[in-house]
Amino acid sequence: MARLTDVHCHLLPPELRQPPAPSWQDPWFAACHADSPRFAGGAEVLGALDRAELERAVVFGWPFADPGLLAEVNDYVAAQAAASGGSLIGMALVNPGRPGWERELARCQGLGLVGVGELNPDAQGFALEFEGGLRRALLTLAEMGWPLILHASEPVGHQYPGKGTAGPIRLWRLLTPALAAAPQLRVCLAHLGGGLPFYAHMPEVAALCRQLWFDTAAVPYLYQPQALVAVDSLLPGRLCFASDFPLLPPSRYREHLLTLSAPSREAAYRSAPKAWLGEP
Fold first, then answer.
1. CA-closest candidate to residue 213, choices 195, 239, 231, 174
2. Backbone CA torsion sign across 244, 246, 251, 256
3. Which of 91, 103, 136, 256 could bridge to 115 as Cys pair (CB 3.0-4.6 Å)?
4. For helices 67-82 and 42-51, what crossing angle results, to 10°?
5. What are phi and psi of 93, to 5 degrees?
6. Is the pLDDT of residue 276 over 90?
7. What are phi and psi of 149, to 5 degrees?
8. Cβ-contact 231, 214 below 8 angstroms
9. 5-10 β-sheet, strand order
10. Distances in whole angstroms, Cα of residue 160 to Cα of each of 154, 195, 245, 252
């Protein structure tokens, strides 16, 4: 049986956690961590999994714009995943808006990483359009059979550091042609897809969303618990449990997840992550 999975946790090497490390020269990173710096390594993620009675987590670094920082963090993620005995599934981060991402992707494959995430166009400065570097990156991931986590953000409601502009309209315009060109591409949209699945009452939106997955990262900060029921009722089997640790511990999601039926919770923890990861 597939193991209980958290599909969204961030790792950062100790040397990049405190100023004046070069990470703090990245405007997005500095804004997101100015008031509440929370960082984790592999041991902290494993401890959070144990406390929540989960068995494994998908881990990745931070969406820096600078390729040098991304390579440094990718090395750390790969080392932590390799030392975890299979409890941490490491993913790479690249910047499709900067030269050299193809080489870094190939290097990360050699390190044992198995996907890409969490890409963030606002943080990394690339266009959220199916053209140029992002188009080539998505088609490359489809050819590799690698899953992707893409940052998404709700276009309404309160503002906060890290919200961004990757909302439903922009995601629709990107993913409609992307999945037409590469239907085998496996994309998980973070943070309930910025609300995209709530439009799945529309047949054409539902058809697109049935080719995607949606994670629950940061949901307690954004939505009432019943939001998960709404998504699951429209798109069964497409929710993936995600904590966004260390922003939130997995235990913070209990109230939200209890709104789901037992089979739906099982799917969010087990079968949906397994399908998105492409596991047999």
1. 239
2. negative
3. 91
4. 50
5. -125, 135
6. yes
7. -110, 125
8. yes
9. 5-10, 56-60, 88-90
10. 11, 16, 17, 19
- What Cα–Cα distance (Å) separates residue 134 from each residue in 82, 100, 101, 140? 28, 13, 10, 10
d(CA 91, CA 83) in angstroms, rounded, equals 14
HSE-CB of 274 using CA atoms within 13 angstroms: 13
Dig out the tokens for 220 from the structure. Answer: 């307690």
pLDDT(231) > 90:
yes
In the numeric block, which tokens belong to residue 131? 């053209």
CATH numbers and ranges of domains, the chain: 5-277 (3.20.20.140)
CB under 8 Å to 3, separation ≥6 — which residues?
Answer: 55, 56, 270
**CA atoms of 126 and 66, how far apart (whole Å):** 12
- Give, in degrees to the nearest 5, the angle at Cα 244 between 239 and 249: 105
Neighbours of 184 (CB within 10 A): 11
pLDDT of 3 higher than 90: no
Beta strand pairing status for 187-189 and 116-119? unpaired
At residue 244, the pLDDT reads 98
Smallest CA-to-CA distance from 185 within 133, 124, 132, 136 is with: 136
pLDDT of residue 1: 53
Confidence of residue 97 (pLDDT cuts 50, 70, 90): very high
pTM over cut 0.90: yes
